[in-house]
Amino acid sequence: MARKKKRTSKSSGKRILKKILFVIALVLVCYYAYTYLVESGYLKNDFFPNVNKANTEEVFESEVIESSSGIQNEKTIEEVESKEANEKEDVKKSEANVSGDFESDYVENHPLFFGNPSDAIGDVNVPKNYLMEKPQFIISYNNEKLIPNWVGWHLGSEDLGEAERSDKFVPDGTLPESWYQVRKEDYQFNMYGFDRGHVCPSADKTATSEDNEATFLMTNMIPQSPNCNRIVWMHLESYERELVEQGNELYIFAGPHGVGGTGSRGYFEEIVINKKDGGVYKITVPAYSWKVIMILSESGDDVNAISDDTEVIAVSVPNTQDCKFIKDTEEKADWHDYICSINDIEQMTGYDFFELLEDNLEETLESKIYSGF
Fold it and tell me: Which pLDDT does position 5 carry in this prediction?
């Protein structure tokens, strides 16, 4: 009788390997079948969290989803495209606000965040509307008149501190090299009687000594009658800071307009500077000092904080000694006696304030007459 051959360890190993491969193949088949059923919506995925879930709250992004067989699931693609369209619309709605689809070249709290009133640029070939950007404020400088067209600044709680008043009036060394830099002594008070009137006030920039010193640059000055500067204008500046202390932030533009004012030495249209080298320069004396203010709650979202109810202030104060009193009376005038609308200032100057706002909102705000004092 013949003996059965003993199984060798080699043949036994082959059988075990075949069983393992069979099990792996079976698992893979089951997995792909399960994946297909999940993606087709026939089963709920409770076992494999990484498998894409159809008909669930999971967000499908822009990639095309395919089933395990490689065939695109048309229903899923249609749902994804519809969801993407809805999401884009939601983004537009969340970004759209009372001021429309707002876009600015500047960050929030920058003076030009809502627009550049005269489209000033920093080009030496544009000497009548030359843009000068300081950390504390922005200037449109007029090298022909040797005064600013306007100065813009943002005023918030972060701007107010304990820095002392500098009182050091200095030429602005950042002007183009070929331009004349106005000096403190050029105003010749004893002859003409006009103050070196700050456009951006010293007291609005007291967070640091450097900030306060910047307000004493002569590019931030205009010839201002003492009564205008020291009484009416000063009271308005104080009111601005009161608004900030009440939890507001302000976007402010201010500047001169016209030619000819009356100081403590009479009426003048210009201050003449005769230099020892024979050079003659002339500082224009303006007829008015104007200011435009937008008042916002200090919320950190300035665009969405604006509405038809937003308060604005606009004033135009004559550059005369008579502004101390209301005309034809002995009653003292204050800044609110010179309130007008922003539209009035725009018509007077030709500037366009807050031009990046939606047109209807801009018109609503700029036609207002402030009465909140």
Answer: 44
Neighbour tally for 286: CB within 10 Å: 25
Residues near 222 by beta carbon (within 8 Å), at least 6 away in sequence:
147, 148, 197, 199, 255, 256, 286, 289
Residue 267 backbone dihedrals phi, psi, to 5 degrees: -90, 130
pTM score, whole prediction: 0.73
**Tens of pLDDT, residues 71-100:** 344 444 455 455 555 554 443 333 434 445
Residue 259's nearest CA partner among 282, 228, 232 is 282
**Which two tokens mark 221?**
């000055």
Active site members: 198
Instruction: Find the DSSP H helices in 193-350.
Output: 209-214, 226-227, 234-245, 302-305, 342-349
Q: Retrieve residue 59's tokens.
A: 């967000």
CA-CA-CA-CA torsion sign (103, 105, 110, 115) = negative
pLDDT reported for residue 359:
95
CB 281 within 8 A of CB 255: no
User: What single string gives the DSSP state of each residue in 349-363?
Assistant: H---TTTTS-HHHHH
Calculate Rg over the CA atoms of the chain.
36
Q: Please write the tens of the pLDDT for every residue from 222-263.
A: 999 999 999 999 999 999 999 999 999 999 999 999 999 999
Low-confidence ranges of the chain (pLDDT < 70): 1-14, 34-100, 324-333
Residue of 199, 168, 204 lying closest to 184 (CA atoms): 168
Alpha helices of 246-358 — where are they, by DSSP H? 302-305, 342-349
